[in-house]
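Fold sample X.
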Amino acid sequence: MSDTMTKFLKASIEGFKDSGVVDVVLSPGSRSTPLALLFENDEDFKVYMDVDERSASFFALGLSKTKKKPVVCVCTSGTAAANYFPAICEAKESQIPLIILTTDRPQELRHVGAPQTMEQVHLYGDKVKFSMEFPVAEETPRMLQYSYAQTFQLVSRAESIPMGPVHANFPFREPLIPNLEVETPVLKRKQRVKGIKVVQEFPKTLKEGFNEEKGIFLLGETTELVDVEKLVALAEKLGWPIFSDSLANLKTSGVKSSVIINHHDLLMKHLELKEDLQPKVIIRLGRALLSKDTNLFLQNFEGHYYIVDDTGLIQDYSHQCDLVIESNKNAFIEASLCQVEELAPNNWLKQWKELDEKVSQILHQTNLLTDYSETRITADILNNLPNKSQLFISNSMPIRDTDTVLEAIPQTSRLFGTRGINGIDGILSSAFGMTAASKECWNGLIIGDLSFFHSLNGLALGKKESLPLTIFVINNDGGGIFSMLPQGQLPKETFEPLFGTPQSLNIEALAQGFSCDYHKIQSLSEWKCLLPKIMGEPKLRIVEILTNREEETAKRKEINQLISSKLTVDILC
């Protein structure tokens, strides 16, 4: 490679460095050689190598999500770049600042049949916030400064609100080996200063809303950590309950309070039965909640619905929000604590807490939590998390079981997931990304057998980097969630090949192939014996938990019917 191009790329690298990028995830290829060598030979970057681009991009997503920092992905030309697409879609919806760098043939080799060449400019369409192509370099001070400024700005675009993925395409001519001895060009350096929006004047409707005794806070997943102690203090001051998603990390914050409602999903199924339980005001912080029933209720809600969001996005598929408060969430909470007056004691919060405790009693007395079951396994993992640990929750049934059973726990832990688009793509790689950001603590993953199979190659990077992730694979030989949906009523001969899709995986052999510790669980006694041995020891291991899909479906349906019947009696009385 010419010294001109090397200097141009070194200026680009400096732009990433000065904008705060540390982590770079590479996938092998010829055309990406210049960027790969320059990143690898710069000690200011931590470089990871993953041979599969789809796995690499989800690893980067998990790393960025956990560290709350931009992460760069670099790949070669052709279909390699297309494999980033699922993670880019998730990053956009989850507002994760991924920096996608694709490498390409120069313009004279495009549209003329050159190998491994396709149209890569604007490849990802509207799924990235910004897309650009770098020129083939010229060595002039202005072009070197341009190269530096563009990568600096690329990161700034990714981190600006709303955060999200950005893309740059680098065309390279052969030869592709840069001269690493070339000095970094002299550049005019840049700095970034980030600010937040603070609530200074409360709208009249919001002030009136805070005077209502029948209010509810909804806390969804957020890109920044919410100050839960102050949110709880605000809710206590108002006497309002908080309905919180598991991934919002309120119930794993170590904070305990009567305002935290653990089982809002099960309770919201019955709100239409009693006028006393209809809220007048709802204030949501963060994303929409996972709970289908909570979101269905919002679609018919006739009171005031406020969303606090400084991303510029109005994420409200209920179409019932009548006020968007463009504020940093913690700034809003802080200002609200100063603005609102403590309401007189009332029966509103007491009603909710009594019903929540009733649901908890029912759950803990049924075979769903007393016998060997997927839900029991999930509950045991959550209740035995080490302090300051991290747990990634896969989509499909694991996140739903978590929302069902998670109650406020005394230890401080963090839960992660990919709920932007809610797919099963790259779960394993995302969890390894989480682990890479915090290797010193205990890290775990709860995942189903199909999701595990779908992202199996993520194990290669986890093993290579010695990432201490405990992987709990709930193996019911198929897609358990479909059994809970209307498709579950189809005849077995139709349901199994189309929706159940059993794979009959030999997970023990897979674990051996990747040199992972392996444990198989088939009974409650085996589970009780193993659990305390592995929860405090960070290590790469696979724990396969064998269950029966039909039996698990029957247990979940039975508990739903039991709660429905008992709560109906309580609410109507």
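Fold sample Y, listed below.
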Amino acid sequence: MSKVLVISSHTDLENDSLANKIIINTLREKELPEAEYLILDKEYPNRDFDVAKEQERLKSADIIVIATPFFWFDWTSLIQNYIEKIFLHGFSHGTTGNALEGKKVVMSITLGAPAEAYSKDAIGFTLDDLMLNKVKLLSGFCKMRYCGEVVLGDVSYSLRTDSDKAQLIQDRSQEHAKKIAALVNSL
């Protein structure tokens, strides 16, 4: 059985998220209960990462799921900072940096706007252009295998005050978690 590491990169998962919190909780409680969960904003509120601990955590995983909202046309600054501090030359890349070789990477992405808003016609760029190409490049550079993404659009946190819309977000977020688990379990 593959060892799965789920990394939540929301900058305030508990207080400022609806969809991402439901996704992580559904994965943890129902869909991937055997996985290890790293909730970055909880474990490292000051971004003072334990490099050795995180490198060991990554090395022990077979599949890495990065769960991120799409903030300002990219993944969060928290996951970017984590990668900058943990994915060091000699560990993840370079002539001796093969610790992540063969790891499988899956992305879980939430969008506040409908997915169609991130298209060439709408803004001149696609989600691939804005973020996924970077993830694919990072995966290749570190000799990991990019295995795909599950995207959930139209889950703006601002909709949480409307009970009908909040319920719809909850239902769609739980379905999103099932899709992530199905992708992970297919690898």
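Sample Y note: The first strand starts at residue 4 and ends at 8.
Also: The mean pLDDT is 96.
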